[in-house]
Amino acid sequence: MSNQTSLAYRITSDGHRVRGDWANVPIADVGAGELLIRTSYSSVNYKDALAATGAGNVVRTFPLIGGIDVAGEVVQSTDSRFHEGDRIVVTGFALGEEHDGGYSQWVRVPADWAVPLPDGMTAWESMALGTAGITAALAIHRLEHNGLRPDQGPVAVTGASGGTGSLAVSMLAGRGYDVAAVTGKEHAHDYLRRLGAAQVVERPTAPERVRPLESARWAGAVDAVGGDLLTWLIRTTQRHGSIATFGNVGGHELSTSVLPFILRGISLLGVNTGSFSHQLRRQLWQRMNDDLRPRHLDEITRTIDFHQLPKAFDEFLTGRVRGRVVVRVNGAS
Ligand SMILES: NC(=O)c1ccc[n+]([C@@H]2O[C@H](COP(=O)([O-])OP(=O)(O)OC[C@H]3O[C@@H](n4cnc5c(N)ncnc54)[C@H](OP(=O)(O)O)[C@@H]3O)[C@@H](O)[C@H]2O)c1
Fold first, then answer.
1. Please, what is the average pLDDT of the chain?
2. Which of 54, 122, 168, 325 would be 222's cystine partner, CB 3.0–4.6 Å?
3. Where does the Enoyl reductase (ER) domain lie (predicted)?
4. Best CA proximity match to 100, nearest among 137, 70, 142
């Protein structure tokens, strides 16, 4: 094994330009940690596209194997909690940002990052969920922890046709929420209704004159976009409603006033799935196999072969992606 190489999609920088390319990496060099994994599947997220193309300042050490998600089988373990043949999933912890990631036939990871696949969940399903799934689940967890219940009114999801958005729509609808899917894609309206959205709202354009409060529509919101769309959610959320926000595809800046907070008592909840309580991470993986299990995973997800990976990044950067993209690395269930 130590003499073998692993086909990997590796990101390099010459100091000016960041680029990704295929490389045969010695297995001794595919990351550090107690577990050597044979990768079954990985996935493509917006952050992967930023990392692999250099469009965003994501990768913090070069060269680095990309892929912020990985699911596979343990082939070597020096940690007593894991054994050869265990099926695990890793998301977050700067995988594919600081530590070699899932775009490799083999990858080594610290045992503390690994979550055993819940009973009955396949490796493919875990990557159809991936970082997007854990993010949608954590957002819903935070909203419900803050008091949101299905009888309180519509819950908006922005970036609804994207990976995280699609999963959030399906998960919320499955839990009985009245979901308003906010999208910029006219051709995604039927898709979003099939995922369970009760209404589809066209992504609003920024008005010339912004009022601090508009008619209150949402009991809660899951925001994958940020920027002007988050500002709009803040202006249109009901009294005591909450917004869970994690995305910046619509921009980093947030321009708002204190009025929705002090007059309507709304809450803005930040979501970061890079690193949070391991206990909660395991709980959310269990919930994604149970009450938060999306009913539409097949419809949401497209599977590509490993060699098709580079083509997928462009779709993410231009906002054309619908749903989730799973990457078949070695395959297996
Ligand atoms: N904080 C965290 O821990 C965390 C975790 C995961 C993801 N994220 C972030 O969450 C965001 C979504 O990630 P993803 O992987 O789900 O991305 P994605 O699959 O590319 O989906 C993003 C969606 O946002 C909408 N969109 C794209 N460009 C837009 C623009 N300029 N203005 C407004 N809407 C736009 C599009 O949906 P519509 O056409 O339907 O509007 C697009 O499909 C990213 O910013 C990502 O970095 C953060």
1. 96
2. 168
3. 20-327
4. 70
* CATH number of the domain encompassing residue 109: 3.90.180.10
Quick check: CB of 312 below 6 Å from ligand 1? no
Q: Are residues 105 and 208 in the same domain?
A: no
Question: Is residue 87 situated within a structural domain?
Answer: yes
User: Computed from CA positions of residues 118, 225, 223, 57, in that sequence, does the dihedral angle turn out positive or negative?
Assistant: positive
Would the CB of 245 count as within 6 Å of ligand 1?
Answer: no
Helix (H) or strand (E) holding 230: helix 227-236
* Rounded Cα–Cα distance for residues 2 and 297 (Å): 37
Same domain, 37 and 151: no
| pLDDT tens figures, 113-171 | 999 999 999 999 999 999 999 999 999 999 999 999 999 999 999 999 999 999 999 99
Of all protein residues, the one whose alpha carbon is nearest to atom 36 of ligand 1 is 159
Minimum-distance ligand 1 atom for the alpha carbon of 229: 33
Q: What is the pLDDT of residues 40-86, one digit of tens each?
A: 999 999 999 999 999 989 999 999 999 999 999 999 999 999 999 99
Cis peptide before 63 (omega within 30 of 0): yes
Q: Is the CB of 135 under 6 A from ligand 1?
A: yes
Ligand 1 binding pocket includes 193 (Cβ within 6 Å): no
E strand or H helix that includes residue 137: helix 123-145
Query: Ligand 1: distance of its center to the CA of 46 in Å?
Result: 7
Residue type, 215: S
Domain boundary among 270, 289, 320: 270
Q: Is 130 in the pocket of ligand 1 (CB under 6 A)?
A: no
Tens of pLDDT, residues 91-115:
999 999 999 999 999 999 999 999 9
For 258, the token pair is: 């204190």
Whole-angstrom Cα distance, residue 238 to residue 241? 5
Closest CA to 103 of 78, 130, 81, 133: 130
